[in-house]
Write a structure and sequence with these properties.
By secondary structure, the protein is an alpha/beta fold. Helices cover about 35% and strands about 20% of the residues. The chain has 15 helices and 21 strands. Strands 2, 3, 4, 7, 8, 13, 14, 17, 18 and 21 form a 10-stranded mixed β-sheet that branches. Helix 9 crosses helix 10. The protein is globular and about 80 Å long. The termini are far apart.
């Protein structure tokens, strides 16, 4: 039973009682596994473009920009960097004073001078201990060195957002992912007025740090790139938080109050829904490279954006014919083949419909947000990725699945997972306005049955947490989708601090 203070808490967050009830029912019922037909691969769901097709796509993108097209670069940037430094925290909090040979900490210390923040760490060591970082290393004072990097009394890299760490070293200093995303935006998303629209989603406790960093680097970045930046920030909305549950599925409480937790990156569909731009690029904050290595990234960002515009050209042409009644059976068949071959959308019931119902069906299927997702060849064990899945209405379409959405007890599905040739590097370009120029309601195109439940704890007590359908997973389940192969050079995430020593970040 909800208490008056519970109702007040719900009202303050913008969550209804029915939404709370639905969340609690999810804990009891769980989430169904998806019905999948195949792992997407070249020839079935993943498009391989020829050099000529790539060039035609790039030219279409340049024309879109030249004609005054709207574009915004949307970057989820709320993640804290703490996971990057997991091995370092374990070392500092552990009993050994010397890192094990070959361990991540030992590798980092051996390559200290190659780190983009080496100069700052040196200055911090002098400030804290009166000696340089090199002298700490020579004296075997490794714990003090690592503490200077990750602890609040030092550089606090373990407590900062990933987007504000120094990633790349240049002759005139080091740049953060925030600055590299700005630079990439200048090269791929500057509109006809020479302006780049950038939107970062940030956590509330880091917002001020982002605002200060943007103010600090904006003049120099605009001068270096020759464009103007229009940068906005948003936070996950309290209305997208999800209630925590006890192991018996009753509401979890702390100090008598319901405990709510952030709903995961799927909550950002609400933030994306607020963007007033026809085209939106989506890319994770840490997938950046220095200037000298960015050419493939720029080229294939233009390729997938231009390919999306080519698809949209056809979609609008077909929508207009259907809306005006200017169609016959051969045209309906042509549209169905287009959707099957270019969007990998199929429906075995299509041929059973009469002509008027086919036209309505096709118009409804075309009248949705559109996304083109870059896909990289898998060079190891895939953790989910591109699949052909069955939708609630019985049709089949392309979906980006996480491994938890796939039934591990189904040997056929596990064989699909293991045979997957590609994975999703979170490199998306989206068209989120309809043919009349009005914004789609993106929240109407999600699949609520694609979230998941995880085990967490709070102050030592076990709890169940509810994750919303992921932003590029179930939150975009009902979008028209195309997958295009892009080279692995476009995928350079930084998951641990040691990744900054890889050639892609040097």
């Amino acid at each position: 039973m909800l208490q008056p203070e519970d109702l007040a808490q719900l009202e303050a967050k913008g969550i209804t009682e029915s939404q709370l009830d639905a969340q609690l029912r999810r804990f009891e019922q769980g989430f169904p596994f998806l019905d999948i037909l195949a792992a997407a691969r070249p020839g079935r769901g993943i498009t391989l473009l020829s050099p000529q097709q790539e060039e035609e796509a790039r030219q279409r993108w340049h024309r879109y920009l030249a004609e005054g097209g709207e574009v915004t670069k949307f970057v989820p940037a709320s993640g804290a960097a703490s996971r990057m430094f997991k091995a370092l925290f374990e070392f500092v909090d552990g009993e050994d004073d010397t890192p094990a040979p070959g361990s991540p900490v030992a590798q980092l210390v051996e390559n200290f001078t190659r780190l983009p923040f080496a100069a700052e760490l040196d200055a911090t060591a002098v400030k804290l201990y009166g000696v340089t970082a090199g002298e700490l290393i020579a004296a075997g004072r490794i714990k003090e060195l690592i503490s200077a990097l990750i602890k609040p009394e030092g550089m606090n890299y373990g407590g900062l957002p990933k987007g504000l760490l120094k990633f790349h070293k240049y002759a005139d200093g080091s740049r953060t992912p925030l600055e590299e995303q700005m630079t990439e935006g200048a090269q791929t998303a500057a509109n006809s007025l020479g302006t780049v629209n950038l939107h970062f989603t940030v956590s509330a406790n880091h917002r001020k740090l982002f605002e200060e960093k943007i103010a600090e680097v904006l003049p120099a970045t605009e001068k270096r790139t020759g464009v103007k930046f229009n940068i906005s920030l948003s936070e996950q909305k309290p209305s997208t938080d999800t209630v925590a549950a006890n192991p018996d599925n009753t509401p979890f409480r702390e100090d008598g109050k319901l405990l709510f937790r952030p709903g995961g990156h799927g909550a950002l569909i609400e933030n994306l829904n607020d963007i007033d731009s026809a085209v939106v690029f989506i890319k994770n904050i840490d997938n950046v490279v220095p200037d000298a290595l960015r050419q493939p990234t720029v080229r294939y960002k233009e390729v997938i954006a231009g390919y999306m515009m080519q698809l949209r050209d056809r979609i609008v042409e077909y929508q207009m014919a259907l809306a005006d009644g200017k169609y016959d059976e051969p045209l309906l068949d042509e549209i169905f083949v287009f959707m099957r071959d270019r969007l990998s959308l199929s429906d075995k019931n299509f041929t059973k419909m009469d002509i008027p119902h086919r036209a309505v069906y096709l118009h409804d299927k075309l009248d949705r947000p559109l996304r083109v997702c870059g896909m990289v060849r898998n060079e190891g064990e895939p953790g989910g990725g591109p699949f052909v899945a069955v939708n609630p209405d019985g049709s089949a379409s392309l979906q980006i699945l996480e491994s938890h959405q796939i039934d591990k007890n189904n040997p056929e599905y596990m064989a699909m997972l293991k045979s997957a040739t590609h994975f999703n590097p979170v490199d998306l370009v989206c068209y989120i306005k309809d043919r009349h120029g009005d914004n789609y309601d993106l929240t109407a195109h999600t699949d609520p049955a694609t979230g998941f439940i995880s085990s967490k704890s709070s102050h030592g007590k076990e709890l169940k947490a509810l994750e919303l359908p992921g932003l590029w997973n179930g939150a975009m389940s009902d979008w028209n989708t195309a997958f295009v192969e892009v080279p692995v050079e476009t995928f350079n995430p930084v998951k641990t601090v040691n990744d900054l020593l890889r050639p892609a970040h040097q």
